[in-house]
Amino acid sequence: MGDLFAEPKGPQSERQLIRLAADGDARAIRALYDRYAPRVYAVVRRIAADDDLAQDYAQEAWIRAIRALPTFRGDARFSTWLHRIAVNAALQSLRKADARAKREGPAPDDVPVAPGHADSLLQKRLENALDQLPEGMREVLILHDVEGYTHEEIGDVLGVTSGTSKSQLFKARAKMRALLAGLSGEAQEPHERGAEAWSI
Amino acid sequence: MEHLTIEALARLVDEPANPEEATHLASCEACSSELASLMAQTESLGALPDILPPRGDWEVLAARLRSDGLVQDPGLFRKLGLARTPGWMPAAAAVVLFLGGTAFGAGLTRSGEAAVSDADPIAAVATVEDAASAVRAAEEQYVSAVSRYREIMEQQGGSVSGVDPVSRYAALEHLVSVSQAAVRQAPGDPYLNGFLTSALAERDAAARLVSVSRDNWF
After folding, report:
1. Are B1 and B22 spatial neighbours (Cβ–Cβ below 8 Å)?
2. pLDDT digit string (tens) for B110-165?
3. What domains sit in chain A, N to C, each tagged with a CATH number?
4. Dihedral of CA A134/A139/A144/A148: which sign?
5. In chain A, what residues touch B214 (CB-CB under 8 Å)?
6. How far is CA B136 from CA A4, B75, B92, B191, in A?
7. Number of domains, chain B
8. ipTM greater than 0.85, yes or no?
9. pTM (2 decimals)?
10. Which domain holds residue B94?
11. CA-nearest residue of chain A to B4?
C-alpha cells in the first residue's frame, strides 16, 4: 500500500496551510493543529488548572480560530494570533458559572508532561503549584511569567488596570514561592522577617 | 531596617530596588537569598514547555469541525494524495460498467453457482485461504493501478501531488478512522481488515516521520 501516496515535496508553508484551512481543507487544518496543539493546550491547561476543562477550552479555542481564519490577515504572526484566541477562549470559558462550579473539586495531582523535558520533576512541581493558585493570581502569573505578556496586555485581556495586574503578579509570585516551598518539603524557616511576610 | 516583605521581593524580580531596599539587600543574606529563589522561580516558569493534548483530542475536534461545517470532506483522490481524478478514470469506469453489465446480463441467462462464479469469481471463494489470496490479489491489483496512474501522469508531463509528512499523516489518520468504521460494520470482512491493517502500518510509519520533524517546530 506504500505507493498510494506521493513522496512528500517538503513542508508546506504556513501561509499556504492557513489559506487552505480557511477554505475548510481538512488536511491543512490538521496540519495546523499538529503544529500548534501543544502550545494551545499548554496555555489553556494552565489557565483552567483542570484536565477536562482544558480539553473543552482547547476545543473551543480551535473552533473559534478555524471559524476566524478567513479574517486572519497576517499582520501578526499566526502563532501570536492563535495564542490570543486560546487565552481569550479559556478565560471566557472559565468565567462561566458551570465552569466555576467544576473548579471546586480537588486540584489534579498529575499534569501531562511533554516527553523529553530536561527537568520534568521541577516542571511537575511548578504545574501543580500553579494549579493551586487562586484563579485571579494564576491568570496573571501565567500570562506574565509563563507567556510573557506585559501588564498592559494583561490589562487588555483581563479587563483590569496594569497596576492591578502588577499587584496580583507580586502576590502570585509570593504565593507560588510558598506553595513550592511546601511542595518540596523545604522547611519554611521561622524567618526573622516574621510570619506576616509569608501570609499572602 | 526590617526584612523586606515577600511581595516586595516579588516586585524586585523585574523592577529596580529603591536605595533603601538596595542597602538592605546588600547586608541581609536571608532577603537576598529569598530574592534569588523568586528569580529562579520566575525563570523556571518562563521555561515551562508546551503540553501535549490528551489522546483522541483531534478526533473530538474533527467531529466538531465537521458538525459545525468548518471542514470540507476531501474527495477520494484527494484523500489518497492525488491531485485530481485521473484522466483515464472515466474510460476505466465505462469499461467496468460495460463488463459488469455484460456479466450481469450473462448471469441472468444462466442459473446456479456457475453463473455466480462467472460474474464474480470472488463470490465462488469458499475457504479462508482462498479468500485471503483473493484479498492479496485485489490489493496488488489496486496498487498496480495506482502505480500505473502515476507512471502515465509522469509520462504526460504532469506531476502527482505530494504532501508533507504531517498532511500525509493526517490523511492516513483519516483513512484509518474510515477503515475502522468500515470494519466495525463488517468485522469479519477480510478485505476491510486487510485494508485497515495496511493503513495502520502506513500511518504508524508516517507518525514516526512526523515525530522526527515535530522536534523542530517549537
Report:
1. no
2. 444 444 445 566 677 777 777 767 766 666 666 666 667 666 766 776 555 545 66
3. 8-106 (1.10.1740.10), 119-200 (1.10.10.10)
4. positive
5. 34
6. 15, 25, 22, 8
7. 3
8. no
9. 0.58
10. 86-127+144-161
11. A193
